[in-house]
Structures are given as structure tokens and as C-alpha cells.
Write a structure and sequence with these properties.
This protein is mainly alpha-helical and 325 residues long. The protein has a single domain, classed as Rhopdopsin 7-helix transmembrane proteins, CATH 1.20.1070. The protein has 12 helices and 3 strands. A 3-stranded mixed beta sheet has the order 2-1-3. Helix 10 (249-267) runs antiparallel to helix 11 (272-297). It comes from Astatotilapia calliptera. The chain crosses the membrane at residues 12-28, 34-58, 67-85, 105-127, 147-170, 207-228, 249-270, 276-296. This is G-protein coupled receptors family 1 profile domain-containing protein. One of its GO terms (cellular component) is plasma membrane.
Length: 325
């Protein structure tokens, strides 16, 4: 951040608090039950996403462009919940609401990077489905492992740069209105509104950021499925249409789980505590459900996990036999 400041101007002094107070869940009755639920969600998320990544990594049959995107989604889900849930539990369950200025910006950066990458991963999977169904003859030629690696890498670079700019702009603010952040994490919108100098650049960023990492990805996904629906409508038999549509059900489930709660929460006029809980669920729930959906709805991953389980069982049986002999 010092490099960011020196690049924009020298000898400028900004008022920065030594710490912030995260107050999002304070005052909500029986909130400890919700913390227990968050911990349960986190454990399931870690186990499920690790299992999906292990299955894809160890099974050579799953090293296809589609499963490169699925692996990255599982990785992002794992890192995203690991960045958010333990810190949220530390703040509220163990009563450590104070967080230093630098730690807060770091917390913000990683949370926004991983949340943003979830949406862009859905874009990568949408592209894969469009090419597989609408342009099947070009799929093997255009959607290669190298292409998918490059696409995912470009998304990572894009998100890191965008979030780094948004975070860097916060360092140009004098934060003297308050030190209380009324959210469950270091929320960008909550922080820049604490400024007592001009926060127009951060305000503009707060409008551009959702467009880049939420609305444009959603638009791309919707247009993708419009083209897929049009292509399937031209297929001769109902059976072939259903077969083609079935390859999209897992991805459509992920899209619904990610985007619908966000859209509902943003549209509903609900009281602040309910809004904070809804937004926290929107952040931590999809990373738990995504791998479960892929296991339940994707035969290849089911088979791979069965093979992996068989390998582990055989390995432990052999070790036990060797120890007895």
C-alpha cells in the first residue's frame, strides 16, 4: 500500500485509525447457534472441496478443460471460506471485534478476491458448456487444457488487479467519522463511508466493482444459456435434448445457488441484522454446496471418488497385513 501511495502523491498525510471494530453480529439474540452453524458449514466445505480436488488431481480421466475449471472452483471455494469463516468466528465467537487497519484491508482484499473468482469460474464453465453443446465440432479444437488454464489465469490476474485498486484507493482516505464497521467483515462500502475527505473514487469503484464481478458475469451466463436453449430446440428428438440439457444441470445449480441469494438480498428491503446474516450465508453457503452438487450430479466425479476410496481402503488393508506379518 505504501507503493500505491507514493505513486499517487508524495508528502500527503492521511488520518488512519489504529484499528476498526467489526460490529455486524453484535446484538442479535441467540447468535451463538449461528456461529456453530458457520463452523459446521466450514468443516463440510473443507472436506467436500478437498475431496473434489483430490479426485480431479489423481484421476487422469478428469484432466479435461471442464474439470480444470471445476478444480479451480473447488480451490476458490476452499480458500474463500478459509479466508472468511475462521476470522469471523474469531471476531464474534471469541469476542475479538478489534482489527488493526492493515489487517482489515488484508482481510477485505482476500475476501473480495475469492468471492469475485466464484462468479468468474461460473463464466468459464458457461463457456465450456456453450462450446460443447452449440459448437460440438469445434469443442476439442478450441477448448483445450492450455486455453482453460489461460482463461482461469487471466481471471485471477483481472480480479487481483481490480480488488487491489479498490483496496489501494481506501488508503487514500482519512477515516475519522468512526471506527465501527457495521458488517460481518471488513466491507469496502462500510469502510470508505467512514472517510471525512472526498471519497468519490472509492464511491465510483463501489459501483464499477459489482458490475465487473457480478452483473457482467451473470449477463454472460444468461446469454450462454439462451444460446444453449436455442441450440437444443433445434435437436430432433426430446431424448437428445434432455441428454444435452442434463450435462448443464450441475452448472445451472451452481449458478442458481450463487446468484439468486445475492439478487434476493439486494432486492428485499429487510432490517439490517437480517440483511447481514443473509449476506454472510450468501458468502459461505455456496462454497459448501458446490462440491456436493458436483458429486451428486456428475457421474465422472462419483466414479473417481469411488476409485479413490477403494485405493485408500486397499492401502490401509495392505499396511495392516504387513504389520501383522
Amino acid at each position: 500500500m505504501d507503493l500505491f501511495n507514493s505513486a499517487l502523491g508524495k508528502n500527503i498525510t492521511f488520518l488512519r485509525p489504529a484499528f476498526f471494530i467489526i460490529s455486524g453480529f453484535i446484538g442479535i439474540p441467540n447468535i451463538k447457534y449461528y456461529y456453530a452453524f458457520l463452523f459446521f458449514v466450514y468443516i463440510i466445505s473443507v472436506l467436500a472441496n478437498t475431496a473434489v480436488m483430490a479426485a480431479i488431481y489423481l484421476d487422469h480421466n478428469l484432466r479435461t478443460p471442464k474439470y480444470i475449471a471445476v478444480f479451480n472452483l473447488a480451490l476458490v471455494d476452499l480458500l474463500g471460506n478459509s479466508a472468511m469463516v475462521p476470522k469471523v468466528l474469531d471476531i464474534f465467537l471469541f469476542n475479538h471485534p478489534h482489527i488493526s487497519y492493515n489487517d482489515c484491508l488484508t482481510f477485505l482484499f482476500f475476501c473480495y478476491v475469492f468471492l469475485s473468482m466464484q462468479a468468474l469460474n461460473l463464466v468459464a464453465l458457461s463457456y465450456d458448456r456453450v462450446m460443447a453443446i452449440v459448437y460440438p465440432l469445434h469443442y476439442q479444437l478450441k477448448v483445450t487444457q492450455k486455453f482453460m488454464f489461460c482463461l482461469i489465469a487471466s481471471f485471477w490476474v483481472f480480479v487481483i488487479i481490480v480488488v487491489l485498486i479498490a483496496t489501494g484507493l481506501l488508503t487514500r482516505l482519512s477515516l475519522c467519522e468512526s471506527v465501527v464497521i457495521k458488517s460481518f467483515f471488513c466491507d469496502h462500502g462500510q469502510i470508505y463511508r467512514l472517510a471525512c475527505n472526498d471519497y468519490t473514487p472509492s464511491d465510483i469503484t463501489a459501483w464499477i466493482l459489482p458490475a465487473l464481478i457480478l452483473w457482467i458475469p451473470l449477463l454472460f451466463v444468461l446469454l450462454s444459456y439462451l444460446s444453449i436453449s436455442y441450440a437444443l430446440a433445434k435437436v430432433a428428438t426430446v431424448r437428445e435434448r434432455m441428454k444435452g440439457f442434463k450435462t448443464c444441470t450441475a452448472h445451472l445449480s451452481l449458478v442458481a445457488i450463487y446468484f439468486l441469494p445475492i439478487l434476493i438480498t439486494l432486492r428485499l428491503n429487510i432490517e439490517p441484522n437480517a440483511r447481514i446474516i443473509n449476506l454472510s450465508l450468501t458468502s459461505v453457503f455456496p462454497p459448501m454446496l458446490n462440491p456436493i452438487i458436483y458429486v451428486l450430479q456428475t457421474q465422472e466425479i462419483k466414479e473417481s471418488l469411488k476409485k479413490l476410496k477403494g485405493r485408500i481402503t486397499t492401502h490401509y488393508k495392505n499396511r495392516k497385513l504387513r504389520s501383522l506379518s
